Amino acid sequence: MRTVRVIGGGLAGTEAAWQVAQWGVPVVLQEMRPLRQSPAHHSQELAELVCSNSFGAKASDRASGLLHEELRRLGSVVIGKADEHHVPAGGALAVDRGVFSRDLTQTLAQHPLIELERQEVQRIPEDEIVVLATGPLTSEALADDLQRFTGSQYMSFFDAASPIVVGESINTEIAFRASRYDKGDADYFNCPMTQEQYLAFWQTLCEAEQAEVKDFERETAKFFEGCLPIEEMAKRGEDTMRYGPLKPVGLRDPRSPERFYAVVQLRQEDKAGQLWNMVGFQTNLRWGEQKRVFRLIPGLEEAEFVRMGVMHRNTFINSPELLQPTLQFHQRPTLLAAGQLIGTEGYTAAAAGGWLAGTNAARVALGLEPVSPPNETMMGSLIGFVTSASPKHFQPMPPNFGIIPSLDIRIRNKRDRYGKYRDRALESLTTWQKQLQPAMVS
Ligand SMILES: Cc1cc2nc3c(=O)[nH]c(=O)nc-3n(C[C@H](O)[C@H](O)[C@H](O)COP(=O)(O)OP(=O)(O)OC[C@H]3O[C@@H](n4cnc5c(N)ncnc54)[C@H](O)[C@@H]3O)c2cc1C
User: Fold this and answer.
1) What is the pLDDT of residues 29-43, one digit of tens each?
2) Ligand 1 within 6 A of 227 CB?
3) pLDDT score at 441
4) Any alpha helices (H) in 97-240, and if so which ranges?
């Protein structure tokens, strides 16, 4: 039987290797630490949590909690161990990070079908079934080779992303649909500001608290003068933003003849028009500060954010161009990828991609058809998003309810709506699971 090779022993790679072994297929898991450390990892354990020890909200009517539940039902080793080593953290699934990673390392090392190799892989192996899961800090040599394989235009090394807002939470009594100079099809949401509103917003933005920037991120950021954080732009002068992303020229509210002092634009992010990206709002502000300051924008008072703005080093491929919904590369179906490298964001999302890539790598080895989870599940929505988003503006995405297909009925109460999403997702997962051949646990 063909062996599968998984490169990178983070959240995605650990889950992928485990799932391959559950199908009775031998797997080699290659991890470069401790021979070579990444700028953010500190230990030699598999599945190290590089920052927070939280996997997000536990409740199954929250996006992360629903993904936990789906993974639990699918036999995820990462979520299984997170449950086992959880620590009190209010509504969040948080873990004792040392015990969690050590236990996963031992569990995988003891599995008869898993061989753990400590090695930096510098080239994508040819003629093998391979899962790439080397994460946002993929080593330079492998990133170079991946760039050669995919074509340089399909790789990003820095994540400068603006916040994304749920369309339903935009106040359309204030925000209006239009394109600058009426070009296109009224494609944008526009949030207009009077002089007084603009000055209050500018002042608050200049004083808002920034997140700590790591040294390796500061260095990468130097190359990106072109996409300045919005707060830096604000600090350059009272009018700088009005001559940049907040310029009001060419924008008219079809409902009124009023002229505006400044306008914030939001661009559609997904095909269904459920998610809207704040144009030019890449930022280093702390997440709480982003919510506080950006809700001062008229029309966004009640904005629900599915992803906050970020600026950090992040190697990721243009998955909508390169990957199938099975996480196989179009150009080479024996090569699969998972984790932050494919543009899912967060620990749980990395484990979810690892589950799918590992399952499909094993299925390829066994001559079975690869699968992809239904869109109604959080896992299916997330994988669907990263493999079908607009390639031009592709940015990593965490699990959220904005990417899941709408319900047939409109439910105004958010908690009730999310509860319905959960019920539909779990029902759909159960049906799908029955169609998969049972894993051949060794
Ligand atoms: C600084 C930072 C902080 C973050 N904080 C959070 C957070 O608090 N919460 C959250 O949910 N998400 C966070 N993320 C986002 C993301 O969820 C995590 O990075 C997550 O660990 C991604 O999982 P992964 O498996 O894709 O990558 P990783 O967990 O990074 O695993 C990749 C593994 O591949 C190895 N590797 C790299 N190159 C090679 C090579 N050439 N050969 C062999 N091995 C290699 C690395 O050593 C690493 O062990 C953060 C990301 C960064 C960069």
Assistant:
1) 999 999 998 878 889
2) no
3) 43
4) 97-109, 140-150, 195-207, 215-221, 230-235
